[in-house]
Amino acid sequence: MAKTEDISFGYLLSDVTLLFRKHFDRRAVKFGLTRAQWRATKVLYHREGLRQTELAEFLEMEPIAVGRVIDRLQAAGFVERRPDPKDRRAWRLYVTEQARVIVGDMELIARELRKDATRGIGHDELQHALAVIGRIKDNLQALEQGDGTP
C-alpha cells in the first residue's frame, strides 16, 4: 500500500515556482522589475510606511536580502526611504509616483499569468490544491520552529 511520504513532490513544486518566476520576469521586463522587486513594491503600495524588517516579515525573506531589493528599487526610482519620526535610527519605506503608475499594469501581468497557468483547472480544484500546499507549508514551518513535529 502506497504511503503519502512515498510520493515525491518537492521537485514538482520547485519546477512550478521556477517556471512561474521565469514567465513573470519575461512579461514584466518592460517595467524593469524582477518578481522579488514587484512583490516588495506591491506590499509597500498597500502598506506604505513599513520598516525594512516589517517588509521582510511580509515577504518571508531575510532583512538583508530585502535591503538589497529596496536598494535596487530606490536606485530605479520606485521606492523612497523616509526617516521614521519616532526612531532616528530607522527608515520608513514608501512607493514613488513612478511605482504607483505601473502597479495596475503589473497586477494585470500577474493575473494573466495565473490565468495561463491554471488553464483547464477548475476553481474548486485549485482551492483544494492550494489548501493542501498550505498545510505542507505549515508543517515545514513547524519544523523550522524547532519542535520537530508539524
UniProtKB/TrEMBL annotation:
Q: Which BP terms in the Gene Ontology apply to this protein? A: response to stress
Q: Which Gene3D superfamilies match?
A: Winged helix-like DNA-binding domain superfamily/Winged helix DNA-binding domain
Any idea which UniProt keywords this protein has?
A: DNA-binding, Transcription, Transcription regulation
Q: Which residues form the HTH marR-type domain?
A: 6-138
Q: Which domain of life is it from?
A: Bacteria
Q: What is one Pfam family matched by this protein?
A: MarR
Molecular function via GO: DNA binding; DNA-binding transcription factor activity
What PROSITE patterns does the entry give? HTH_MARR_2 (PS50995)
* Protein name per the record: MarR family transcriptional regulator
Naturally occurring in which organism (per UniProt): Rhodanobacter denitrificans
